[in-house]
Amino acid sequence: MFDSPPGTLPWYVAGPVIGLVVPTLVLIGRKRFGISSSFRHICAAGLPDSSRLKPAYLRYDWRGEGLWNLTFVLGILLGAVAAVALWGMPEPGRTLSEGTSATLARLGLTDFSGFVPSQLISWEALGTPVGWFFLVGGSFLVGFGARYADGCTSGHAITGLSTFRAPSLVAVLGFFAGGLLATHVVLPLVLPLLLR
Predict the structure, then answer these.
(1) 87 pLDDT exceeds 70?
(2) Domain ranges of the chain
(3) What's the pTM?
């Protein structure tokens, strides 16, 4: 029951490590943490302040606000490479629970031989107008939602809740409600369109 899939850290290691994020940030003098803001920092760094193409939203001291955040994101990438080097890749087909696989099979997905269902995540699926629409539309909604909520799940759930920020509680409740709605209402309606 408590076994971790091959190639992943067990919950009793990963959980405390995530829990140490907030005290570590306090020790280094940072109060905010999140991943979605790194995209803003990358965009701000990409255009010079003198550029007419740079909107006011991106005109700020990205080095002061975002350099440590971009370093953190680089650490995530390097950590993933190190994890694969140390523990190897998980076995394909073992990343979904039996219950999830059975539910998705009832909705029409049949190929679970890879890390993700290839009927959804593949070049063939992306090459269809419907697949392209869902990829672009879904990406836009995720990006817009993270910026509109002033942060993503990691920022609100890890640091926002631990620092008793009421807006973070509202955001996290919204994230979970949206996830449940998408899983139980939207996915059964949308999946048949993707699988045509």
Answers:
(1) yes
(2) 1-89, 122-196
(3) 0.70
